[in-house]
Amino acid sequence: MITMGDLTEMFGVNSKQAFDFFLRYLCEEVVSKNVSEMETLYVASVMAHYAQTSRHEAMSMSPSGSLYDILDTFVLPGFTAEGAAGLQDPEILEVAGSHTLLLVGFFRDQMKRQHNLGWYVRLGQSFFDRAGSRLKAEKKAGLLRSVALNFPLWATACSNMSRTLREERFLLKFES
Fold first, then answer.
1. What's the pLDDT tens digit per position in 90-127?
2. DSSP-H helix ranges across the chain
């Protein structure tokens, strides 16, 4: 008799496996680029996190489903006093940047039909840059500013990784 534990063991992907999976593909994309290992680890962790986060997550901010959601959640509220105050919070700005990276990077092909991706790339850069300039922890602040500086590269790398994964979907192997 097969138990639920057996199914989880056979089909479940834990956080480390998801991270290692994205890290491997991202490293292939940026091998010849001048980016830090910490940036690569950070971007892989962002991709792995959202690969395992439901759009209907109740405990935290669920991933944006489209670039319209980025506008509704992180840009338009900035036109009100209450919303503008929230966009000073480095954690919210980092989440906004990571949502933007996910959509203009990994889901670029789906987003490009309806959106000006160049504008959203600059917006993602701005989110990470503002998060980095507002953080007190200098090491993480520097990392977020580096991600902001290299945001176009990361968006392209995530897009290329997504295409590679779609083209090789039957060749994917998960290591345990």
1. 999 999 999 999 999 998 988 888 888 999 999 999 99
2. 4-11, 15-30, 37-51, 67-70, 81-86, 90-101, 108-111, 117-134, 138-149, 151-167
